[in-house]
Design a protein that fits this description.
Elements: H1 3-9, E1 34-39, H2 54-61, E2 80-82, H3 87-108, H4 117-145, E3 150-155, H5 162-169, E4 175-180, H6 200-204, E5 210-218, H7 223-231, E6 235-239, H8 240-248, H9 253-262, E7 267-273, H10 295-307, E8 311-318, H11 327-346
Helix pairs in contact: 2-11, 3-4, 4-5, 9-10, 10-11
Length: 347
């Protein structure tokens, strides 16, 4: 059946069809204009786990999302599909996670791999495996980018989108990153892990194509990260504390958004850690932090980004952990749908 036939026969007002792809949409990765790559990986998570189950939980929650978007009423016709979850990758990650937990436990006791042969062996194995995961993500991303599709990534922990950003760096000579997060993620090889979730932006700024990193909502960070932010002119950080203080003193979110957007170039990659939101919206995420953005503040920021004629070349959502209910996945599924549509609008 052709894409046009699928559009003609699909009822966007009906209950989500569990036989179809994400959001009950009738498209597959071949005829979709936007493809979501799920990455069920959380090997180096240093606090609470569960994010490896995020992609499947968001997929299941998506069937409860109504498809009407007031900014783009026929958005569903663009064609959206999520690729199959790589179960082999997930199982591999689960096995490695157990080794990582033991390593982190020893690390927290003050033992270091420099003085412990067993820790060095495990660290080398984990760094190699995480590097291989990034290469897999890059290859999968290029597979779809080479077909002219927009690619989004659904993690997993926040180490997972590096491969997508690397793939985009082969397609774009220059772009900026809009990073929404509770954490700066600028640690160098956190706990010895080269590809830690706490090091994603440290690794990203190594790419010469990344012209500017703009961070929003940051409220949990270390001294070394502050020094890097102050030393690297490519990094602009809108700390959550400063945002809140400006709002308390009368500055509107619209004006703050304008300032954020002014720091970004024409092409933008959006990286969103769900813990950038107020933790009431994501209580089960791995490292929740008080404060943060409201759901509508994030959507409003991205809407203004699109209205400012910025082009979103790709994006990710990470650190969604289902917990005992569907709340986190419910929020993430709705946020994902809005970001997909806004990304499409910008293109």
């Amino acid at each position: 059946m052709s894409k046009l036939d699928k559009i003609r026969d699909f009822d966007p007002n009906a209950i989500g069809d569990a036989n179809n792809n994400i959001y009950g949409l009738p498209f597959d990765c071949e005829d979709a204009s936007i493809v979501i790559i799920p990455v069920p990986w959380e090997v180096t998570v240093s606090y609470s786990g569960g994010t490896a189950d995020g992609p499947e939980a968001v997929f299941e929650a998506s069937y409860q999302v109504d498809l009407y978007d007031p900014l783009l009423p026929d958005a569903w016709k663009l064609g959206l599909a999520m690729d199959d979850v790589n179960l082999e990758l997930k199982v591999k990650g689960q096995k490695l996670r157990k080794k990582a937990e033991h390593y982190i436990d020893l690390y927290s006791q003050g033992k270091l791999p420099q003085k412990n042969a067993g820790m060095r062996k495990v660290l080398a194995e984990l760094n190699q495996a995480c590097g291989e995961m990034n290469q897999w993500v890059k290859a999968e991303s290029l597979k779809y980018l080479n077909k002219g599709k927009i690619v989004a990534l659904l993690g997993g922990d926040h180490s997972t989108p590096l491969g997508l950003m690397q793939a985009l760096s082969e397609k774009h000579a220059s772009f900026g990153v809009l990073h929404i997060d509770a954490h700066a993620d600028l640690r160098e090889a956190y706990e010895g892990f080269e590809f830690s979730h706490a090091s994603i932006m440290y690794n990203a700024i190594k790419m010469p194509q990344l012209s500017h990193l703009v961070q929003v909502g940051i409220r949990d960070y270390c001294e070394a990260e502050v020094k890097l932010i102050n030393a690297d002119k490519r990094i602009t950080t809108f700390f959550d504390r400063e945002i809140k203080h400006q709002q308390y003193e009368g500055k509107s979110w619209a004006a703050i958004c304008d300032e954020i957007i002014s720091k970004l170039p024409e092409k933008v990659y959006l990286s969103l850690d769900i813990d950038g939101l107020d933790p009431k919206l994501c209580p089960n995420t791995g490292t929740p932090v008080p404060g943060g953005l409201e759901y509508d503040e994030v959507v409003y920021l991205v809407e203004k980004l699109v209205k400012a004629k910025k082009k979103i070349i790709g994006f990710d959502i990470n650190e969604v952990a289902p917990g005992d209910d569907e709340w986190d996945a419910n929020v993430a599924a709705r946020l994902l749908y809005r970001l997909v549509n806004l990304c499409a609008m910008s293109n």
